[in-house]
Amino acid sequence: MDVANLASQLNAGAILPEGAVILTLMVVLIGELALGRASAARWTPYVAIAGLLLSVGLLCLQWDLTPTLSFLGSFNADKLSIVLRSIIALSTLVTILMSIRYVEQAGSSIGEFMTILLSATVGGMFLCGAEELTMIFVSLETLSIASYLLTGYMKRDPRSNEAALKYLLIGAASSAVFLYGLSLLYGLSGGETHLSAIANALAQGTNHLGLLIALVFVIAGISFKIAAVPFHQWTPDVYEGAPTPVVAFLSVGSKAAGFALAIRLLTQAFPAVVEQWQFIFTALAILSMVLGNVVAIAQTSMKRMLAYSSIGQAGFVMIGFVIGTEAGYASMIFYLLIYLFMNLGAFTCIILFALRTGTDQISEYAGLYQKDPLLTLALSLCLLSLGGIPPLAGFFGKIYLFWAGWQAGAYGLVILGLVTSVISIYYYIRVVKMMVVKEPQEMSDVVLNYPAINWTPLGMRPLQVGLFVTLIATSIAGILSNPLFTLVNNAVVEVPHLQTANAAKTPMAILPTTTPELPAPLVSNSDSTAL
Amino acid sequence: MTLADGVQLVSTLILAAMVIGAALGVVLFDNIVYSAFTLGGVFISIAGLYILMNADFVSAAQVLIYVGAVNVLILFAIMLVNKQEVYSPVPRRWIRKLSAALVSAGLFGLLTVMLLQTEWLPNAAQTAPDSTVILIGEHFFSDYLLPFELASILLLMALVGAVVIARRESIVGEDTAIVGEQPAPVLELPERPREPVA
Amino acid sequence: MDLATFPWLTTIILFPLVAAAAIPLIPDPKGQGRPIRWYSLVIGLIDFALIVYTFSTQYDLSSSELQLVEVYNWIPQLGLQWSLGADGLSMPLILLTGFVTTLAILAAWPVTLKPRLFYFLVLAMYGGQIAVFAVQDMLVFFLVWELELLPVYLLLAIWGGYKRQYAATKFILYTAGSSLFILVAALAMAFYGDTITFDMRALGLKEFSLSFELLVYGGLLIAYAVKLPIVPLHTWLPDAHGEATAPVHMLLAGILLKMGGYALIRMNAEMLPQAHALFAPALVILGVVNIIYAALTSFAQRNLKRKIAYSSISHMGFVLIGIASFTDLGLSGAVLQMVSHGLIGASLFFLVGATYDRTHTLILEEMGGVGQKMPKIFAMFTACSMASLALPGMSGFVAELMVFVGFATSDAYSLAFRIIVVFLAAVGVILTPIYLLSMLREIFYGAENKDLTSHEALIDAEPREVFIIACLLVPIIGIGLYPKIITQIYDAKTAQLTLRMRGAVPSLAQAPVPMGSSPAGMTTHFYQAPQL
């Protein structure tokens, strides 16, 4: 059997995007060895960016292919996974843009940073399409271990060490719990590892208690990844101690991978206990929204505030997940896509500020508008978008989530989401107020001594590019969101197991009267009733 | 019950008792070196259980990797650090110990009930294979090909990461331009640590 | 270009927004903001001219239908449509917005702090506020309603008085919190029944159950009660108005408060008539409380801005009574009161700002006797106060009279209730001259404050200020003498709306509309214009 034949039998084309990332990773690693560390900063990031762009391009090409399982059922390249893999690849791309200067200024080696970051990306991307328990676990561990390493990358800083150690210990424990849950699934299904086979086997059995315990353990593992309360305790310390670009990746890419895992594993392997997992996730969503947003108010450090706010944001996304309708999943992916830009935009801004002033205290932002209007504008827009102020992208993301939630009848969750998003407006706008409203005499010391804006040093240009890209996306992705809506709807519509999951729910009537023709004029009718 | 079955049952019980006993030792010993050694005992006992399940390759791998590599590494690490630190006793420590014991016991009870309640589906392939190594190899290169290959990326990345963490840094700093007013300390976060809250 | 199908409203809304986005590109060599000021003024004038042109050529006064309709699918997956239109309710307020905002830009001439940001925000508000009155889709309505949140916050927080940050935060929490009800109501109404739509007219046609209507009505009432404001939810307003600078103040009093009244009529009264029939007595009582409580509180205020702010609240009580009167005349009066107060409030607040610029204090005790030095300002202040206290011949008088007569002749309430309400509201009307005139006396006469009157900065009004007040007084007096210039815009609409509201009250459904069942309503009888 020749190689081409084998590849077509395995349907290996499905993992070409991951292949591109792996190839890039190899090029970066070997190239840095061959050419030396001194020049690495000048080319490795750009190679990595090119590789990720290639990977996203390949994902786009795969969009129209009919999804088939590849590698004998290990990997599923359906549209859902394509969108989620693109989100992860894009988040890494923006993370690289913001990390060049950061890593360079800290004096660390950038080639290895890229290598580890790209492996994390590979892990996350495989996780989005993983269809089989072993594959799920190995890709999850690839992502996790890379995240631990990245967290501890600033190894002389005790905060970074502390963060890495905490993350490692809690992460290892959660992986163990997750693995135990998977092993129970394996046992309960009589030795199956493919998700669809597990679902078939479990559909006949009556092992309710065992299935529930497996479910709880699996959810514990997933919740750790998406930092849902009460599995969030690692988040603030890790976010504060880890290098900021890594935090950006953890809060977007890693979280998206966690949600991808949740969608695939829970909807596919646990159809027998849909109500139970939706109940558990409802509780997690409520806790995350309330605790994340309320505790964020009290934070004084920008990174910690964003850590708590990202917990709250994950709570919003979970609304889309628990309602279990097609619109729910679509809104969830739509929000993740929007969140990618606005959150990474915010992180780009705080990295820029930290590089120029050496601090991330919120109070130190006072009066920044006078010194750096561009940074103020970008950070304000990203934070306001996170808070859901129209017409920025975040508003549309939240509207879609709440729309889907209301459609599915989750009134309580939607109202709670609305109330907590008002709370979130309060703490986001506090930062905006700090930057814009403060008088010149109230300016903080670091802003008073703000260095002249200089985009020429190595790695500043990519930072600038990242800033503009995220800023533009955050500003207009909401207003012009029609194509994105079509994209996420298509991604969800063609996935069979999401259809079965929502068959349990009673779907509302088909979507609205969207024809441009006007409804019958009000007057004639009301007149006839009145008279 | 044949003799073989009887031997198997007795060995299982003995091994299970060893696992539990050694694991308790890991948790309960105050001296960390004792804990590390009993951990080795846990690994060995589990390897024994694998043999009883006809998983000879896994058993051998368990001994080689967990006992031979992981446990020895742990011992090395403990002995290299060799730092005697006297911890001040935590007040009301028994409450923590008691609650931990309660949680563990509850979990144990729950899992036991679950194990007994569940009707485990019989595995399709009941007959013991001739050679587990061949079987594992076949799986690696057929239906588990992708995770097997992905594991290589995982290992590569772990290797790189270990090198990054362990290597002694030569300070590069000189030629890098400084953007902020002060040069950032090398290999530290550019953000200043927070002032401790009074 | 086909004039009839040209998207006029979209152009009117987007033009200031796009123009605002260009502000960072304008060169400003001196840093005083002079080119930006002129640029904004020109944009404001062009947009106002567009509004007037659209109104005069494309708008049919005799129709009660929605006109200038534009519908574009925005996000079909959500049923979100960019759907605009103007009818008798929106058109006068759109005209008012264009007029007051343009004057506010002119009034902002002395603002030199961060001019780019200031004019950017004002222009953004310009488009956003017109959008609130023109949008016909509930979800987009929520969007534009929230859109005004941030500009007002920043305008308050940067350019306000000493307690500005407190006031701005209070404003944003009140408004953002209350606007949740709009979104919840929009979702609830859209998903009711078996079709999903956010189109306001389609929603108006849906048959809601009574309990559902009551719930939604209550929610929307809270949202709009914060904006209008209605008394227990008004506490943000004295703070916000007390701290805002004059041009922002003009926008707040002139336009923002009207958004609440407009939405109350557009949604509560028009789309939920069954609930409106049950809630109406409560609205009347709230209206009376508004009038009397705010007038009494205003009486006790020693801060000029807070005094006027409370008088605004008091005047908004009439809007509530008019909405709940179930007569054509009352509803007509409510709309006229909104327009009239938009003009009067803007002028009064502008004058307060002008006075503050000279005296640098807002405390009445510290002023006094400045009338000698500033006769023009005194004259203008007096004229505007007269308008505010409803002097016959000014717009406030007509509006309040229409509300009174409309309510007094309403057949929806018992005679005793009507007598009590009219009596209490009349007490409020009597209180207004007391506090306004005593305020005038304290500022301009009273014990002379030598430090103040001898101060060099105490100069009389400059031509720009006289021009602004003249611009505002012309329509105030014009409406007072000949109200039909405004009422003709919406007579057809209010008549149709009254019929709809009455249709939901069983006892009124068959009864003839009292005093003026003709579309032109009672105004034409009452103020019969000489036939030209």
TrEMBL record, chain A:
NAD(P)H-quinone oxidoreductase subunit 2 N-terminal domain boundaries: 12-100
Any single biological process term in GO: photosynthesis, light reaction
Catalyzed chemical reaction(s): a plastoquinone + NADPH + (n+1) H(+)(in) = a plastoquinol + NADP(+) + n H(+)(out); a plastoquinone + NADH + (n+1) H(+)(in) = a plastoquinol + NAD(+) + n H(+)(out)
Membrane topology: Multi-pass membrane protein
Source species, domain of life: Bacteria
Keywords: Membrane, NAD, NADP, Plastoquinone, Quinone, Thylakoid, Translocase, Transmembrane, Transmembrane helix, Transport
Gene Ontology MF terms: NADH dehydrogenase (ubiquinone) activity; oxidoreductase activity, acting on NAD(P)H, quinone or similar compound as acceptor; quinone binding
E.C. code: 7.1.1.-
Every NADH:quinone oxidoreductase/Mrp antiporter transmembrane domain range: 130-424
Compartments where found: Cellular thylakoid membrane; Endomembrane system; Membrane
A Pfam family that the UniProt record links to this protein: Proton_antipo_M
Residue spans crossing the bilayer: 12-31, 43-63, 83-103, 110-127, 133-153, 165-189, 209-234, 246-267, 279-298, 305-323, 329-353, 374-396, 408-429, 465-485
Main location: membrane
A GO-annotated cellular component: endomembrane system
Role this protein plays: NDH-1 shuttles electrons from an unknown electron donor, via FMN and iron-sulfur (Fe-S) centers, to quinones in the respiratory and/or the photosynthetic chain. The immediate electron acceptor for the enzyme in this species is believed to be plastoquinone. Couples the redox reaction to proton translocation, and thus conserves the redox energy in a proton gradient. Cyanobacterial NDH-1 also plays a role in inorganic carbon-concentration.
Subunit details: NDH-1 can be composed of about 15 different subunits; different subcomplexes with different compositions have been identified which probably have different functions.
UniProt record similarity statement: Belongs to the complex I subunit 2 family.
Protein name, entry field: NAD(P)H-quinone oxidoreductase subunit 2
Species name: Petrachloros mirabilis ULC683
Lineage: Bacteria, Bacillati, Cyanobacteriota, Cyanophyceae, Synechococcales
Encoding gene, per UniProt annotation: ndhB
From TrEMBL, chain B:
Residue runs in coiled coils: none
Membrane spanning residue stretches: 6-29, 36-53, 59-82, 94-116, 144-166
Catalytic activity of the protein: a plastoquinone + NADH + (n+1) H(+)(in) = a plastoquinol + NAD(+) + n H(+)(out); a plastoquinone + NADPH + (n+1) H(+)(in) = a plastoquinol + NADP(+) + n H(+)(out)
Short name of any one Pfam family annotated for the protein: Oxidored_q3
EC number, as in UniProt: 7.1.1.-
Gene Ontology MF terms in the entry: NADH dehydrogenase (ubiquinone) activity; oxidoreductase activity; quinone binding
Keywords: Cell membrane, Membrane, NAD, Oxidoreductase, Quinone, Transmembrane, Transmembrane helix
GO cellular component assignments: plasma membrane; transmembrane transporter complex
Membrane topology: Multi-pass membrane protein
InterPro entries per UniProt: NADH_UbQ/plastoQ_OxRdtase_su6, Nuo/plastoQ_OxRdtase_6_NuoJ
Cell compartment(s), UniProt: Cell membrane
NCBIfam families: PRK06638.1-3
Function: NDH-1 shuttles electrons from NADH, via FMN and iron-sulfur (Fe-S) centers, to quinones in the respiratory chain. Couples the redox reaction to proton translocation (for every two electrons transferred, four hydrogen ions are translocated across the cytoplasmic membrane), and thus conserves the redox energy in a proton gradient.
Family: Belongs to the complex I subunit 6 family.
Protein name in UniProt: NADH-quinone oxidoreductase subunit J
Taxonomic source organism: Petrachloros mirabilis ULC683
UniProtKB/TrEMBL annotation, chain C:
GO cellular component terms, semicolon-separated: endomembrane system; plasma membrane-derived thylakoid membrane
Keyword terms, alphabetized: Membrane, NAD, NADP, Oxidoreductase, Plastoquinone, Quinone, Thylakoid, Translocase, Transmembrane, Transmembrane helix
Enzymatic reactions: a plastoquinone + NADPH + (n+1) H(+)(in) = a plastoquinol + NADP(+) + n H(+)(out); a plastoquinone + NADH + (n+1) H(+)(in) = a plastoquinol + NAD(+) + n H(+)(out)
Domain NADH:quinone oxidoreductase/Mrp antiporter transmembrane, first and last residues per copy: 136-418
InterPro entries linked: NADH_Q_OxRdtase_chain4, NADH_Q_OxRdtase_chainM/4, NADH_UbQ_OxRdtase, ND/Mrp_TM
Chain segments annotated as transmembrane: 6-26, 38-56, 89-110, 117-135, 141-159, 171-192, 212-234, 246-265, 277-296, 308-326, 338-356, 377-409, 415-437, 466-483
Membrane topology value: Multi-pass membrane protein
UniProt function note: NDH-1 shuttles electrons from NAD(P)H, via FMN and iron-sulfur (Fe-S) centers, to quinones in the respiratory chain. The immediate electron acceptor for the enzyme in this species is believed to be plastoquinone. Couples the redox reaction to proton translocation (for every two electrons transferred, four hydrogen ions are translocated across the cytoplasmic membrane), and thus conserves the redox energy in a proton gradient.
Protein name: NAD(P)H-quinone oxidoreductase chain 4
Organism annotation: Petrachloros mirabilis ULC683
